[in-house]
Amino acid sequence: MSNLIKITIYIILFVLQGCQKDDFETSTQTNSSKVENVLPQLDITENTGKIVIAPQFDYAGDFQEGLAAVRIGDIETGKVGFIDKSGNMVITPQFSRVTFFQEGLAAVRIGDHITGKWGFIDKQGKMVINPQFDNANFFKEGLAAVRIGDDQTGKDGFIDTNGIFQINPQFDGALNFHEGLAAVIIRDHQTYKWGFIDKQGKMVINPQFRGVFNFHEGLSAVILGGSDSSEFGFIDRQGNLVRVPKLVNFPFSFHEGLAAVRVGDSEGGKIGFIDRQGKMVIKPEFDYANEFKEGLATVRVGDPVTGKMGYIARR
Q1: Where are the beta strands (DSSP E) in 58-150?
Q2: In-domain check, residue 315
């Protein structure tokens, strides 16, 4: 994979904190759907802080559809399985990488990162789509992005839950579908641009962006400009651009009509909120902010160690 595409994807993934999980879904080129964080042995607690599953795993992921991925052993040689909320190992650790469960299936890799292949299992651990892909994402809206070939020359397409290609491999990178559209990468010589396709594989928003988020509430955050400059904005489903204030360093996705945006760099910048017209409606004064849910958003004033957290309302 080229340095340019890595930089584009990593900007989307790591510039900000506080985005929801769907925002951080990445192209199948990044191997992002792998359980590989090097963490101390983890346990899972209920909201009282009481340990309900004893520390015993070298990695423990979030629960999704009632199951959580756990790893026994180190990142190179360990194996990943799935537990239920009682801590029972319901799918024996046997995979080198996995995604979480989505729409009843999880992508799993058999073998190492060079020769291994990805397939899909159900919640009983049965392999329902045989390992045959060089990378794979989880299912979303009935389709999953998968890759045939290596990072440099391979192509991405989309399969259904039967493992049949509904959109043939033809893209240099792809995210899963959100709100009926999927972001894809088209390479022109050494230049990579993101656009969006519909579920028939038709390019409905031409490749023109350096980076994108998934659509949420009808809008997608995008990175504009060339490699030596960055300007951010939002596009609607027709590709129309909604510009944000010029000082904005990076936007989140919209939730309940508002999107968090950072003004300034990731070290000293502050987060505020804009509306769908790009107007700053909550001034930037927070060091951390999550999306609005049920009319409230979690915010922090101060650094992660000594700062304090609270909630703000939309109005």
Answers
A1: 59-64, 67-72, 79-83, 89-95, 97-98, 106-110, 117-121, 127-133, 135-136, 144-148
A2: yes
